[in-house]
Amino acid sequence: MGTSRSKTAADAPEMPRFARHKLQNFINGEFVAPKSGRYLDDINPATEEVIAAIPDSDAGDVDAAVAAARAAFRSWSLTPADNRSRLLLKIADLIEKNFEELARLESADNGKPISLARRLDIPRAIANFRFFATAILHQASEAHLTDSTALNYTLRQPLGVAGLIAPWNLPLYLLSWKIAPAIAAGNTCVAKPSEMTPMTANRLAELLIEAGMPQGVINIVHGLGPTAGAAIAAHRDVPVLSFTGGTATGAKVAAAAAPLFKKVSLELGGKNPTIIFADADLEEAIPTSLRAAFWNQGEICLCGSRVFAQRPVFDKVVEGFFHGAKSLRIGDPLDDGTQIGALISAAHVDKVLGYVELARKEGGKIFTGGHRVERRGYFVEPTVITGLQSDCRVLQEEIFGPVVTITPFDDEAEVIAFANSTRYGLSSSVWTRDLQRAHRVAAAIESGTVWINCWLLRDLRVPFGGAKESGVGREGGFDSLEFFTEAKNVCVKL
Ligand code: NAD
């Protein structure tokens, strides 16, 4: 056991190299070892200890998982919606029953504060299964009457085996966001959690057995992106792919899928603007924008990492961020009171601190933070940077850590240009009391989601996805169910 990977602590040679859990792939309803017999270390980012060994799966394991999913497809796709719905509801109930254990696993595996896992990750995993379990009971299909000559009606049929690839920042939240609609719509699936955060996916597999999920409907393959992930993306018998991760990886997945004409949904990176106009309710805008910057250590694709404050309130916003960032409690993610946990890996700490260094070079002022915390684990101080221009690299590239920039602006046109100046377009927040301006700015911003006077208010029915290089396609509500089905028109001559 023990090929190292980027999450491994290169700087902690004294750490014991043992695995507490040996995870296996979940294929055809059973836990099976990877064909190669190779395993990877899974590290707790807060302690730098190895907490598990996970299969270093390759194309052979993916082949086995796809074969199981294919074999299960016919029966599952013909299972009445009501029965599928009941099984999904059962999974949701079991996640709820094991809520605290799952929250602890997520926190230990990812480094996130347990309070956040309890408030965000696990409730959302439950909600994902419940939402799509009930959504399939309320679906209608279309019909078009061609005068008095023909009746057209639309069949929405599942596609087969769905390939589902998820990142490490919201592990069970995002994996269930894909699994639930895929199987609710009648597909079977091969899901790959991130190699950085396999623990809750493994627990989910155990819960699937308890729920009585038919064999082969949900298969979970662990392993690295370039091997296991790439094998799913390029597999001939996987006609539909839902991928969430970085933009550069998304391009590789799209390239693998293109020659096979797969249906692809890509949820990618972001560099989201938070725009605070001078008339905003600062009592609300500053604390919420602070949360938008630093929740999950800034490791949420929707984090507002570029704050633009209108000149009359700029100093007040900077002051609010300064005090707010300094007061956030950094500590053991498993402590109830911790607000900032550990970053995912040593490599990610280097990346984030590299951007702080770049900010200095680009002429920025590090108002607060900017250092690794002196303790074991991958902790970085919440960092507030001012004095940078909108077109510099720190404001253009995704950092994905606890780093926020604050930039002044003069008027609406200028801030819209700033907001739209990156290659990303995932989400944005606009703070103003002027309703007409709010609507105008919302329409002008190039992003998949615009929050007005709020952040991360998510209704699972709404279309979710990115503009520009933040993604392709929309998921959420009936958009997800449409994505995971193919429309077929049946034309009947009257
Ligand atoms: P990543 O792109 O490195 O990895 C994501 C997943 O893809 C992992 O499971 C990984 O193993 C797999 N993978 C890697 N290379 C692959 C390949 N060649 N073929 C197939 N699969 C491959 O991303 P990450 O570092 O895990 O996550 C952080 C990124 O995810 C950030 O850019 C963040 O903005 C983005 N993200 C986006 C959303 C969204 O909804 N738009 C949500 C969360 C995270």
Characterization of this structure:
The chain is an alpha/beta fold and 494 residues long. The protein has helices at residues 59-78, 81-97, 99-110, 114-135, 171-184, 199-211, 225-234, 247-257, 282-294, 311-327, 346-361, 393-396, 412-419, 435-444, 477-483, and strands at 21-22, 25-27, 30-32, 39-44, 49-55, 143-146, 150-158, 161-165, 188-192, 218-220, 240-244, 263-267, 272-276, 304-310, 365-368, 383-386, 403-409, 427-431, 449-452, 471-472, 485-493. The chain has a seven-stranded mixed sheet with strand order 15-16-17-14-13-18-19, with helices on both faces. The chain has a six-stranded mixed sheet with strand order 10-9-8-11-12-20, sandwiched between helices. Strands 1-5-4 form a three-stranded mixed sheet, covered by helices on one side. Helix 2 packs antiparallel against helix 4 and helix 2 packs across helix 6. The longest helix has 22 residues, at 114-135. Residues 1-6 and 8-18 have low confidence and may be disordered. Nicotinamide-adenine-dinucleotide is lined by residues 165-169, 174, 192, 194-195, 224-226, 229-230, 233, 244-246, 249, 252-253, 267-270, 301, 398, 400, 426, 466, 471.
